[in-house]
Amino acid sequence: MWNKACRDPSLWCKLDLSRLNSYFFNIPNNQPGACKRSNAKMTQFIKYVLSLSNGTTCLVFNYNVHLTDEQFIITAERTPNLKRLVLPKTVEFSRVDVHVAMKSWEGLESINITSNIPSHYIFPAIGKYCKNIIEMKFGYGCLFEEKHVEALIKCAPNLEGLSIRSKMTKMEALCGVFTFLEHLEAVNILHSFIIDASYRGLGDVDICYLQNHLPPSSLGKLIYCEGGSCLRCKNGNSITTGRIFQIASIIMRASEDLWREDEITSLAR
Ligand SMILES: [Zn+2]
């Protein structure tokens, strides 16, 4: 009876692995033996969980799990109905594996990706197989720049929600987002560090500058922090020190809690 009960599809619509104890699944840098055991444990865990699940439409990986190509393919093959995917911080995918996985997820609508996934792998694969992408969140690390906008135009022309929260972003890229993605309804730039070379020489721009320099179509679509009112500030993550510390803080806060939260509620887990 328990076996039958735990296979009920209603239990598995959302598979949230973010509560896994990452200590057992993360790869210690200097312990090759532990790394192998950790990988084997994760593979076994994914196979077991996905053998029970049926009809999963939302899959959230633990932010700190190191996902291998084998685990990625196993997951993709067993979740053909996936609509939302939240990938972890570090992955180890080949170009071929990314294509195989994305081919299994033709109904995907929403994805969180980090800078550890090579953009020249993931974006062409999304563009080729996942024609229904309407939401995307970029993780921390690399700069959000024009090449990302060009990729979005090709692979997700119907994008409605974009989160580049707490991310270093080029002003030109932000302009491109509003100029070329005409279906956008919300762009989360909360605590992002916007860089524009023409703004007082160098530095992150303020919201008045943004409003004056972005295309008129951006009005009402930008989500930003107003006077410490956002989730991050409320949770005690307010940054009140100088800009150098702000940059350092953005990099240092590449953490699971920032990845989890989002003011675009459908992009929050
Ligand atoms: Zn804030």
TrEMBL record:
<dbReference type="InterPro" id="IPR032675">
    <property type="entry name" value="LRR_dom_sf"/>
</dbReference>
<dbReference type="GO" id="GO:1905761">
    <property type="term" value="F:SCF ubiquitin ligase complex binding"/>
</dbReference>
<protein>
    <recommendedName>
        <fullName>FBD domain-containing protein</fullName>
    </recommendedName>
</protein>
